[in-house]
Amino acid sequence: MADHTSTGIVLSATDHRLPDPMPVGLAKYTNFKDMAEGGSGKLRSCWDTVVNRLVVMKTLQSKFIHDPKENRRFLREARITAMLQHPNTVPVYEIGHDPEIGIYFTMKRISGENFFQALKRIAMGDEATAEAYSLQRRLEIAISAAQALAYAHVRGVIHRDVKPENIWIGNFGEVILLDWGVAKVWGHSDESESFVFRREDAEDEEMQLRTLTGGGQRPGTPLYMSPEQVRGYKYLDERSDIFSMGIVLYEMLAIREPFRGRNINETFDNIQNVDPPPPSERSPDREIPAAADAIVMRAIQKKPKDRYQSMRAMIADLHELLENRKIE
């Protein structure tokens, strides 16, 4: 009998016979196990009895199943994720609906950790992690995530929530940019659903603002917002994601966050008004190349017209950095 919890291939799982009768919809999934829950959705692993593989199913939390607005957002996330077929995005296998659990979609089951967990251990002085995630490796990870963004941008999709927590590093070196839940189609205002972190939410979130080495849960999104997101602009383009990617680059180079303030309002003010020192000045002990400083500081310019105008241009400079310098 196949071990449904194993990621290995079991001979019985390759049997030529299909289930009889053939299950459809939710009936073909068994062995559900909770994985994570947050926002309005939840993730469970389960076994697809037709294809014979372990998958991840995402659904809305029960209290949101009949919420029209949450259903629109959730279906948009499912379809955008499914349409972005790239080596650095997660494959979607099925989108469906069940009377009891509502809309669901299934995806590839990946193992590993998010990028922030690695950066956090480096900040805490973990030598094994620092060796495994050398500066060169961290830049390679950033390039892979940026490639997924470049692919999305060409197809008119803006991620809007680029941060280390949404960059997944697989056990075999694969890099996946996750969570397209707040993505939007370029040029559409989505007025009723625009993704704006409200200042009135700050009181609840301030308790979560801790230092990178503090080991606490971060309200990651505000720390990576572009100035135009902070100001609540309804029309964003790819340069907003470029700013967020620049913050990720700064953090992975310096192991410090460029705009963190004592509270969220101060963080927002820093994003809009403060020019942080280059990563090499912020963390002089980390031997950050000047060329890396230049890429980061261009990406996090306050005015979109002063940033890279495309993710591809930013990637080209990152490739040149890796090719022209030996990074220890």
Features:
328 residues, alpha+beta, Phosphorylase Kinase, domain 1, Transferase(Phosphotransferase), domain 1, 2 domains, five-stranded antiparallel sheet, three-stranded antiparallel sheet, 12 helices, 10 strands, 36% helix, 16% strand, disordered N terminus
Brief summary of the model shown:
It holds the Pfam family Pkinase. With 328 residues, this protein is α+β, with helices and mostly antiparallel strands.
Amino-to-carboxy terminus distance: 48 Å
What share of residues are in beta strands?
15-25%
Biggest pleated sheet: 5 strands, antiparallel
Poorly predicted segments: 1-6, 191-220
Query: What share of the residues lie within helices?
Result: 25-40%
**SSE order, one letter for each helix or strand:** EEEHEEEHHHEEEEHHHHHHHH
Number of contiguous helices: 12
Tally of strands: 10
**CATH class term of the largest domain:** Mainly Alpha
Average of pLDDT: 86
What's the CATH superfamily of the largest domain, by name? Transferase(Phosphotransferase) domain 1
CATH topology of the largest domain: Transferase(Phosphotransferase), domain 1
Across the major sheet, the strand order is 1-2-3-5-4
Structural class: alpha+beta
Domain Protein kinase: 29-322
GO molecular function: ATP binding; protein serine/threonine kinase activity
Keywords: ATP-binding, Kinase, Nucleotide-binding, Transferase
EC number: 2.7.11.1
